[in-house]
Amino acid sequence: MVPPELDEGLPLERIKDFSLDELLGMAIKAEIGSREFYESLAQRADIEELKRKISWLAGEEKKHEELLRKIYAKMFPGKEVVFPEEHIGPELKPVARELQGVQDIIDLIRWAMKAEEMAAKFYAELENMVEGEDKKRLMRYLSDMEWGHYYTLKAEYELLLDWEMYSQMMHVGP
Length: 174
Description:
Helix content is 78%, strand content 0%. By secondary structure, it is mainly alpha-helical. The radius of gyration is 18 Å and the shape is elongated. The model is unreliable at 1-9 and 169-174 (pLDDT under 50).
């Protein structure tokens, strides 16, 4: 039997007690997963401009991973990053399941927006739960990064909706 916390993600009550190095490991692992997701999403995109922007998001996730690794190395010199087995809370599991089966690019972007929004709220909630200014500052920074991703995706989503509407209007005729 799979332990519930591995099947459904780590509950916030456990994560709030993570040490700073464990929180950083969780965040680094999340950035790696997000980068891999955006790389796979870019491969599915047919519109070249959209593909470039999604690839840019993948690159941003890579930069965030590198930045978090630098922060980790500075705070914990010589210590290897330890990744938790799970890195997302239970609220993100349904989104992750939905993303696996989606084929339409508009739906993919919509679900990716949802994941970014939930991740931002997750880190914001953790900020209120953790003790110590270093942990709070890290959680605030991670939340802000996720909101940035959300708004980038939202802009693309709205452009795609406009494009789809325009495309449909072109086929209606005079």
